[in-house]
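Structure (tokenized):
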């Protein structure tokens, strides 16, 4: 780092070695005594020798310990989805298919525990997903990326964006689950392509400890959603590195011949059996010294599923809504409400002078509408 002080000026320019652009600081040249400049020079030396990363919350530079150091700050490490599951939390999330950064931000502000940015059925790819992840990060809401397909290339590009979780669709065997896990690990533990010094996941290289904690932080989810895969679900859930089994009721019902009837009794029975196998496998792992190992149960809340029932069935992660559906329902209801009011003449009166007067009731409703 080089320092340039302009005489008779209030500008101090710090030329950082990691940046092409100098950083300009203001100070009073008239009060810059030799003692002041000496102290400032010492501060610069201390700053230069420190290891730092940008803190996204305060937008200031803060020190971050290296991967090998253990400090008191480790205890204050932010909770991840993975750590919350280990603590026994039940998490509720939203699927984002519109790829709208605005809706992503609203979802985060609404208080969802996580948001799944859905590249399988949603309307965006990597660039659009990145915009949504940035919106969610602004609200402190963890993002999960569901891939279009379970391949190494898609996993590599998705993981480089820095989501807290990744969801692999259509996993049909333990072998496929093992491959999925390998896509999330750098060699020699996997086949993930290495570009960690420059990608968003590592803070564009500013997170010096990234390689030491990325495996611990990342939630790996395998979606089991066809009849054949359901028959192998216990083995899929037992694969080391698989953190969650995501049940797929719609694709399961379609594979069983009940596309138009996902609530069919046979589909529900198949789902219940599969859920028990996942839970029993996790219990067995714990009894055999596996600690908290084994996959958690995650899935969608269908219309016939109540939150309390899902919790009693062992679900730790539940997605109960899709952004497009929420907006669709609200829009349809809004139009319906307006047109029905026109038909029955609710909320106004005509005294014959051609002017329509609002009733007190309609004014209250109007105020409520705009404050909602």
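Design, position by position:
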């Amino acid at each position: 780092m080089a320092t340039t002080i302009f005489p008779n000026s209030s500008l101090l320019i710090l030329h950082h070695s990691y940046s092409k652009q100098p950083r300009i600081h203001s100070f009073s040249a008239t009060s810059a005594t030799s003692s002041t400049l000496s102290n400032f020079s010492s501060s610069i030396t201390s700053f230069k020798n420190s290891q730092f990363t940008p803190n996204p919350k305060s937008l200031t530079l803060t020190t971050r310990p290296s991967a090998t150091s253990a400090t008191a700050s480790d205890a204050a490490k932010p909770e991840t989805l993975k750590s919350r599951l280990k603590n026994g939390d039940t998490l509720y999330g939203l699927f984002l298919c519109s790829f709208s950064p605005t809706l992503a931000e609203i979802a985060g502000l609404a208080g969802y525990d996580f948001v799944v940015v859905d590249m399988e059925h949603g309307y965006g790819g990597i660039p659009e997903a990145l915009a949504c992840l940035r919106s969610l990060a602004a609200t402190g809401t963890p993002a999960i990326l569901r891939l279009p397909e379970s391949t190494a290339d898609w996993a590599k590009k998705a993981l480089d964006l820095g989501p807290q979780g990744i969801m692999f669709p259509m996993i049909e065997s333990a072998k496929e689950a093992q491959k999925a896990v390998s896509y999330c690990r750098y060699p020699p533990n996997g086949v993930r392509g290495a570009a960690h010094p420059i990608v968003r996941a590592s803070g564009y290289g500013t997170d010096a400890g990234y390689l030491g904690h990325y495996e611990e932080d990342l939630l790996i989810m395998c979606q089991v959603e066809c009849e054949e895969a359901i028959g192998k679900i216990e083995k899929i859930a037992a694969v080391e590195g698989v953190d969650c089994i995501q049940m797929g009721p719609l694709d399961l019902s379609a594979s069983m011949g009940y596309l138009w009837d996902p609530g069919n009794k046979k589909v529900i029975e198949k789902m219940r059996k599969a859920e028990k196998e996942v839970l029993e496998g996790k219990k067995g792992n714990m009894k055999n010294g596996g600690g908290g190992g084994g996959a958690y149960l995650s899935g969608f809340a269908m219309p016939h599923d109540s939150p309390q029932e899902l919790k009693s069935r062992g679900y730790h992660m539940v997605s109960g809504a899709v952004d497009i559906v929420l907006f669709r329902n609200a829009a349809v209801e809004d139009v319906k409400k307006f047109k029905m009011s026109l038909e029955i003449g609710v909320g106004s009166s005509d005294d014959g002078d051609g002017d329509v007067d609002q009733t007190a009731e309609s004014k209250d409703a109007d105020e409520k509408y705009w404050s909602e």
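Reviewer-requested clarification: Residues 1-37, 43-73 have pLDDT under 50 and may be disordered. The longest helix spans residues 265-290.
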